């Protein structure tokens, strides 16, 4: 990996972690929640070691590590989710992901999202060409706890609901043209959406908080509860629906 750009490194690490997770699945040594926990540990150990060797001067924020607020003084911070969609991974589904991102001065600048179950990795250095939006909009929602705001917007827009697991899988479904709206308000952290945001932005999509403000990273508290990913052509309409006064 020596001499790789940050984008190449993010992609390489995400893909390699994904292969490790697939091998762990195939081993049949674990299953269900136990498989998910083992996957989190193994993927995190690999990613942390790879970054320590390849980018020793950079800080890292990982879901599986203790949050060290000293990183907030650094401009280059890798933000990673070694296994996004642990439940889906443990169930043997394909809608789970590996997130590797680099935030530069708080911006989601570089990212790679590996979808190992689909043998696919999308990264900020290779933006996809987005297909045309179909006549009926398609909105992604959580398989287990769809957000009330998303359901309300979907009803107003007469959008088809598509349940899916991982946040990364949902955001990449927008990038790939398989859906049109990913609106989440149920609570996330920086590692849940930094890499997906970087890839979606590189692909020319609208990416923001649900109040329209930009996503900001490398904060002392990594809680970043909501986001909207969609084509720019429909972003204003969705944001207006989200900010409309609620009936008394």
Task: Tell me briefly what this model is.
InterPro entries: CysQ/Inositol_MonoPase, Inositol_monophosphatase-like. The chain has 248 residues and is α/β, with parallel strands linked by helices.
Determine and state the CATH class of the largest domain: Alpha Beta
What is the total tally of β strands?
10
| Mean pLDDT metric | 93
Class per helix and strand makeup: alpha/beta
Description of the molecule:
The chain is an alpha/beta fold and 248 residues long. The protein folds into two domains: 6-123, 2-Layer Sandwich (Fructose-1,6-Bisphosphatase, Chain A, domain 1), CATH 3.30.540.10; 138-243, D-Maltodextrin-Binding Protein, domain 2 (3-Layer(aba) Sandwich), CATH 3.40.190. Helix content is 38%, strand content 22%. The chain is built from seven helices and ten strands. It has helices at 6-27, 32-54, 86-90, 148-157, 167-175, 190-202, 232-243, and strands at residues 59-62, 76-84, 97-104, 107-115, 120-123, 138-142, 160-164, 181-184, 206-208, 227-230. The strands form two sheets. A five-stranded mixed β-sheet has the order 1-2-3-4-5. A five-stranded mixed β-sheet has the order 7-6-8-10-9, sandwiched between helices. A hairpin with a 4-residue loop joins strand 4 (107-115) and strand 5. The radius of gyration is 17 Å and the shape is globular. The mean pLDDT is 93. GO terms for molecular function: 3'(2'),5'-bisphosphate nucleotidase activity; metal ion binding. Its cofactor is Mg(2+).
């Amino acid at each position: 990996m020596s001499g790789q750009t940050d984008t190449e490194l993010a992609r390489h690490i995400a893909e390699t972690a994904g292969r490790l997770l697939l091998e762990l699945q195939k081993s049949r040594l674990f299953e269900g929640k136990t498989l998910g926990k083992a996957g989190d540990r193994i993927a995190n150990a690999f990613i942390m070691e790879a970054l320590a060797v390849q980018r020793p001067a950079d800080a890292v924020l990982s879901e599986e590590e203790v949050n060290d607020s000293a990183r907030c003084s650094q401009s280059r911070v890798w933000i990673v989710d070694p296994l996004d969609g642990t439940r889906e991974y443990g169930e043997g589904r394909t809608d789970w992901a590996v997130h590797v991102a680099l935030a530069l001065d708080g911006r989601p600048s570089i990212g790679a999202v590996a979808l190992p179950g689909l043998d696919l990795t999308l990264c900020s250095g290779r933006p996809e060409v987005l297909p045309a939006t179909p006549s009926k909009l398609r909105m992604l929602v959580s398989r287990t706890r769809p957000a009330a705001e998303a359901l309300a917007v979907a009803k107003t827009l007469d959008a088809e609901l598509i349940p899916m697991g991982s946040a990364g899988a949902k955001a990449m479904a927008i990038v790939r043209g398989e859906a049109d709206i990913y609106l989440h308000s149920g609570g996330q952290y920086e590692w849940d959406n930094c890499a997906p945001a970087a890839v979606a932005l590189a692909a020319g999509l609208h990416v923001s908080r649900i109040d329209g403000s930009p996503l900001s990273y490398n904060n002392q508290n990594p809680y970043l509860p909501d986001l909207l990913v969609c084509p720019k052509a429909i972003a204003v309409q969705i944001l207006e629906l989200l900010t409309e006064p609620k009936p008394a």
